[in-house]
């Protein structure tokens, strides 16, 4: 990598197959590096990427990191041993869930098992109502609960009592007693209270989110502590860590907010895509990030990533704010196979980084989506970034394992495998758009990741989308997004009230209290606030932006407008709010996107000084520095001055 001034920010995205690095320099230029991930030691991949980039530690201002530690813990069920303390009579809540079926018409389908086994749940004799104490938490009840917890020797303890979002006194009292007893017994186990993790109504979501925090925190703390130490040993600063909501936290703070890191990696990609959208003047778009293991789809509204609350990660409900991302198993390493009915399938099993697709020549023998592209000539043989050399013969041999049983040519099997993956990704794009009132035909598709430019035209055709944007640095855009992500503090607070009766003074007092409690008003920071509101009696809420000076009438009207946009109707009912969310962000680094001839992405007759661009009509293949662009028939690609490509139907 050629230096161009001091590095102000480095983004490092550790994926299942590759670890990507993007460095932002003082002059706004971006330089990127790609290396193979080390699945058994993710931190090693971070150091490998820094070493390969030739960045001097003394030139680095800060490092932003996207981690899949929490996602992997939840997928593999390899987190901490958690004991859950909850109100007597509600110890089965994790199993009962919301009493919905895993699949409406499949009676054999089961929900994933809870993170805490029923035998590890301790009932505590106490009870709060919305108005206060119903059953007091006595010293005897505390003593019984402490004894039951110590008997189970936990790694962490989660406490979730009824109505603790409004009345946390019982949780605080038990926490203090447990910490004293655990320390006396020589245990360093954490005790985590639900009113600190998610101070909102709905005991089930509050409980699952608190349990997820307790389940993941020890491993996250160990990983981030170890990574910080290893970076420090090479004189690099401790990392900032991307949260699910699109900002970053210092490593020490992120270690205490493990549940907020569940979508750390994918959030970086949507953040990077939104920066490209703003640079191009695109207000609304769908995004798709196709990596080696999965494809992540997202939504951009008004030039910003769409942030929502709730959702599940690996079957675990986590009711914290997150950049809307839906992942499907359709990455370049997804393995093709034939099911018992003779149908061709793609994924969810992935070849990952080891052994990887057969074309990588690292021991893989099973056909993957990457191998299909190699067979069809979309990905050229030879050396690529990340230390990968593509072997076309190995890809054909692997694809024969699909083609021969199906009685077709390897080219036909490869095309069918790609079409199967496209269908899976198109369904995900429809879910995140149509369900939110967004017509895909009215917005652009921003495609990135190693596989995004290969599948962009096929996906746009399936959804009737008129435009596709391939960003500059498409293959490593998640790392660029991490480097661009601002440091962000976020707080939640319960505030149940009827909106129409609220005064501007009430809202101002609530926002001031949160600002002071979490230091949101620091100089140079941008603050945003939302009320979570619903019609009285509804079971679904919407986040409504608010600011000082808004009164109940203004907020109710704003809620009605958003409800109409999202659902198509409004109700003649009062509106109630449940909680307030406040974020404050530091200024984001500046980046100057510009097409550079040295990257190899520039067309031969492209002259940035004279504003010339070159159009490429499909079918055609354009090799990018870190990916491959497939321009399908009936599509035309135009090189953009900021780098990347704009594709439109011919």
Protein described:
- With 650 residues, the chain is an alpha+beta fold.
- Among the domains are: 75-220, Rossmann fold (3-Layer(aba) Sandwich); 488-585, no CATH class.
- Helix content is 32%, strand content 27%.
- The strands form 10 sheets. Strands 13, 14, 15, 20, 25, 26, 31, 34 and 35 form a 9-stranded mixed β-sheet that branches. A 6-stranded mixed β-sheet has the order 3-2-1-4-11-12. The chain has a 4-stranded parallel β-sheet with strand order 6-5-9-10, with helices on both faces.
- Helix 4 crosses helix 5 (169-184) and helix 11 (392-406) packs across helix 12.
- The relative contact order is 0.11.
- End-to-end Cα distance, whole Å, is 37 Å
What's the CATH class of the domain at 75-220, please? Alpha Beta
What percentage of the residues does DSSP assign to strands (E)? 25-35%
Q: State mean pLDDT (0 to 100 scale).
A: 89
What overall geometry do the principal axes of the alpha carbons give? globular
User: Taking Cα atoms only, what radius of gyration do you get, to the nearest Å?
Assistant: 26 Å
Uncertain runs: 596-612
Which range best describes the helical content: under 10%, 10-25%, 25-40%, 40-55%, 55-70% or over 70%?
Answer: 25-40%
Shape-level CATH architecture of the domain at 75-220: 3-Layer(aba) Sandwich
**Annotation, overall tally of beta strands:** 35
Query: Can you tell me the CATH topology of the domain at 75-220?
Result: Rossmann fold
Helix/strand structural class: alpha+beta
Q: Quickly count the helices.
A: 16
Largest sheet: 9 strands, mixed
């Amino acid at each position: 990598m050629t230096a161009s001034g001091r590095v102000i920010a480095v983004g490092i995205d550790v994926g299942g197959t590759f670890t990507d690095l993007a460095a932002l320099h003082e002059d706004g230029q971006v330089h990127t590096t790609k290396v193979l991930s080390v699945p058994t030691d993710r931190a090693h991949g971070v150091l490998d990427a820094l070493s390969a980039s030739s960045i001097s530690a003394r030139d680095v201002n800060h490092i932003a990191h996207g981690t899949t530690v929490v996602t992997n813990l939840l997928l593999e069920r390899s987190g901490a041993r958690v004991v859950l303390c909850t109100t007597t009579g509600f110890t089965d809540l994790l199993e009962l869930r919301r009493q919905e079926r895993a699949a409406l018409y499949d009676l054999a389908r089961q929900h994933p098992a809870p993170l805490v086994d029923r035998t590890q749940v301790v009932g505590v004799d106490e009870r709060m109502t919305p108005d206060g104490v119903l059953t007091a938490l006595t010293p005897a009840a505390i003593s019984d609960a402490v004894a039951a917890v110590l008997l189970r020797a936990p790694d962490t303890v989660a406490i979730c009592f009824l109505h603790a979002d409004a009345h946390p006194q019982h949780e605080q009292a038990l926490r203090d007693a447990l910490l004293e007893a655990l320390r006396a017994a020589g245990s360093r186990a954490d005790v985590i209270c639900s009113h600190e993790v998610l101070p909102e109504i709905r005991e089930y979501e509050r409980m699952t989110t608190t349990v997820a925090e307790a389940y993941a925190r020890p491993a996250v703390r160990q990983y981030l502590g170890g990574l910080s130490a290893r970076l420090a040993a090479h004189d690099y600063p401790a990392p900032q860590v991307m949260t699910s909501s699109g900002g970053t936290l210092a490593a020490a703070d992120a270690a205490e907010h493990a549940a907020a890191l569940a979508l750390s990696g994918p959030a970086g990609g949507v953040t990077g895509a939104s920066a490209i959208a703003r640079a191009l003047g695109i207000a609304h778009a769908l995004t798709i990030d196709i990596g080696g293991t999965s494809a992540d789809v997202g939504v951009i509204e008004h030039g910003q990533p769409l942030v929502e609350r709730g959702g599940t990660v690996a079957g675990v409900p986590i009711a914290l704010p997150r950049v809307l991302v839906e992942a499907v198993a359709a990455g370049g390493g997804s393995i093709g196979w034939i099911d018992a009915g003779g149908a061709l399938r793609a994924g969810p099993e992935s070849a990952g980084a080891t052994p990887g697709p057969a074309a990588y020549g690292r021991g893989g023998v099973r056909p993957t989506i990457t191998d299909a592209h190699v067979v069809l000539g979309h990905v050229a043989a030879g050396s690529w970034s990340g230390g990968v050399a593509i072997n076309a013969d190995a890809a054909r041999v692997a694809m024969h394992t699909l083609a021969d049983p199906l009685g077709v040519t390897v080219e036909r099997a490869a095309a069918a495998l790609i079409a199967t993956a496209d269908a899976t990704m198109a369904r995900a794009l429809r879910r995140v758009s149509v369900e939110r009132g967004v017509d895909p035909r009215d917005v652009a598709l921003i495609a990135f990741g190693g596989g995004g430019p290969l599948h962009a035209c096929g996906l746009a055709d399936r959804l009737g989308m008129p435009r596709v944007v391939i960003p500059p640095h498409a293959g490593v855009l998640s790392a660029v997004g991490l480097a661009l992500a601002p440091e962000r503090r976020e707080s939640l607070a319960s505030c149940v009230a009827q909106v129409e009766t609220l005064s501007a003074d009430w809202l101002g007092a609530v926002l001031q209290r949160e600002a002071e409690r979490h230091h949101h008003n620091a100089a140079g920071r941008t603050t945003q606030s939302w009320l979570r509101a619903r019609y009285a009696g509804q079971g679904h809420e919407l986040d409504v932006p608010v600011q000082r000076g808004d009164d109940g009438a203004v907020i109710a009207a704003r809620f009605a407008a958003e409800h109409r946009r999202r659902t198509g109707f409004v109700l003649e009912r009062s509106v109630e709010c449940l909680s307030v969310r406040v974020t404050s962000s530091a200024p984001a680094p500046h980046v100057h996107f510009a097409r550079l001839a040295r990257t190899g992405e520039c067309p031969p007759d492209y002259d940035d000084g004279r504003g010339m661009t070159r159009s490429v009509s499909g079918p055609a293949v354009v090799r990018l520095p870190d990916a491959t662009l497939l321009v399908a028939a009936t599509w035309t690609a135009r090189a953009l001055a900021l780098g990347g490509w704009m594709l439109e139907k011919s």
